[in-house]
Amino acid sequence: MNSPSIQPVAPAIEPGHSPWADAWHRLQKNRLAVIGGGVLVVLALACTFGPLLSAYSYEEQNLSNSFAPPGTAHWLGTDQLGRDLLVRLLYGGRISLGVGLCATFVALTIGVVYGAVAGYLGGRTDAVMMRLVDIIYALPFTIFVILLMVFFGRNIVLLFVAIGAVEWLTMARIVRGQVMTLKKMEFIEAARSLGFGNRRIIFRHLLPNLLGPVIVYTTLTIPAVMLLEAFLSFLGLGVQPPMSSWGTLIKDGAEKMEEYWWLLIFPGTIFSLTLFSLNFLGDGLRDALDVRAAKD
Amino acid sequence: MFRFVARRLLQIIPVLLVIITATFFMVRFVPGGPFTAEKAIPPEIMKNLEAHYGLDQPLWRQYFTYLGQIARGDLGPSFKYSNRTVNEIIAQKLPVSLELGGWAMLIALGLGLPLGVFAAARHNTWLDYVCSAVGMIGICVPTFVLGPLLALFFGIYLQWLNVSGWYGPTDRILPGLTLGFVYAAYIMRLTRGGMLEVLNQDFIRTARAKGASETRIIFRHALRGGLLPVVSFLGPAIAGILTGSFVIETIFQIPGLGREFVNSAFNRDYTLVLGTVILYAGLLVFMNLVVDVMQVWLNPRLKFE
């Protein structure tokens, strides 16, 4: 009974690096991606909380103070109705970023499910589904979005859906390609031999392994979506006054740039800066997660 | 190859049919019509108008009448511009848009290809970094920011060029540059990427080992393979330039088809909307075919099937 009690010994294994930790490490070394991410965080915070802290509201008019150049009272000046540009810019950022996120979410959902199903089922179903994607890809889809927006009122939910419906195609292609490779791997075979159904295999075993490419491509879809929203707003088909998105602000600015440069320069700069940040972050993520062919 | 092209041409027909049908019914189920104006038109006149344009017929009959018309190449009369047919309007406006698109494409290729090749040939030097930075700017500064900025600088500040209009040859510079620059940036990135990949392959090393000059390696050996990603991008690029011209035509006040299309949608000019959509779709599908043929021609590993 005197046998030495067995002490639990801490396993002398080096703390392992998960692939995600490795990727995170690589991302942190990419200076441009880190700066991009930082800029995005700052912008998102500013757009969320900035309008609450300001003395002005985005629709507050002050006609005696229209077209005030940037100064101490209005840091970025005012527009033709005397509205504070900074607040409108931050408020517009909420809409632009919001549209970017929501429409990307729509595109993401459709694209991932469609691509995963096509890639997993393969054969005839896959051929038909991907042929459909090819056909839609070849269509002037922006034209249809324009028609939709003109005809069915310019409401913002429709905007999400319309943009999402355009941008899912590339996602579907990427996911399908990944699924085609993954499904030949042993762990899927193992899952199948255990008698799991198709749905369970797709959602529980395939999709988690797709996360890398999907994350990368999502980061790169957001700027594309924001561009499309701004494009529509520029044509007068997007967000309607008194709300403002960056696209509508740029449109207004472009009309009055000859005398009132700040109305164009500030929205244009902020918008471009956001696109830069998203693209740098996306490129950085692609390198960090080692995803090939997500873009280009 | 002939069979490949013929079969692809035949495939265009059902695609166009789907587009025509979808657009036709979408336009018709939309609230408001071409004659809904602020001032109400007396019902008798309305009736006459509708009868004149065949709008009093059942929808399915209108649809088949329209299909018959298109088959004969007639896009019908415009609802908004009385006494003008859609064919006339397109014939007048399309050349302007095509010219704009042509200049943009020329600038995109003329700027993007050389810069991409240079960047790849001087990989990881300052030249490469400058080119890549320019590429990033092109992608991140949208046309509707770049256009007004260019107009502000060259038109108003330096007074070298007109801010808007479409008269003299110099009026082509700013719109063409604005529209082309984004695609130049993409083409530059794709060329650079494609060239870098090819330049890493064994046959290039063999060529180097045999003492071929760097110029010869790039132009004789690498270029053909390196351009493949660019060629597959040309399809989407053409589509983008077509729709991108809507914005450019608005910024620079160019009397092209793009602006006409957006207006026609606002005006519920059914026939003009349909005509433009069919034209754009047809053009696009056809250009995609051209791109596919070019791709096989450049890449011997692909076959016409």
Question: Which two chains have the most extensive interface, and how many residues on each?
Answer: A-B, 36 and 46 residues
By CATH reckoning, the class of the domain at 94-298 in chain B would read Mainly Alpha
- Main sheet summary of chain A: none
Give me the strand/helix succession of chain A: HHHHHHHHHHH
Tally of distinct domains of chain A: 1
Which structural category do the helix and sheet elements of chain B fall into?
mainly alpha
Strand composition percent of chain A: under 5%
Whole-number radius of gyration of chain B? 24 Å
Please give the count of helices of chain A.
Answer: 11
Summarize it.
The complex is a heterodimer of chains A (296) and B (305). Chain A is mainly alpha-helical.
What does this structure look like?
The complex is a heterodimer of chains A (296) and B (305). Chain A is mostly helical and 296 residues long. Helices cover 69% and strands 0% of the residues of chain A. In chain A, 45% of the residues are buried. Chain B has a domain of 205 residues: MetI-like fold. Chain B has twelve helices and no strands. Chain B is flat. At the A-B interface, helix 5, helix 9, helix 10 and helix 11 of A face helix 1, helix 5, helix 6, helix 7 and helix 10 of B.
Observed structural traits:
heterodimer, A: 296 residues, mainly alpha, MetI-like fold, B: 305 residues, 12 helices
Secondary structure layout:
The complex is a heterodimer of chains A (about 300) and B (about 300).
Chain A (H helix, E strand, L loop, with lengths): L18 H11 L1 H23 L31 H37 L1 H15 L3 H11 L4 H27 L3 H8 L4 H9 L4 H24 L11 H11 L5 H28 L7
Chain B lengths: L1 H27 L14 H11 L5 H13 L14 H36 L4 H15 L2 H15 L15 H27 L2 H8 L4 H13 L1 H24 L5 H11 L2 H29 L7
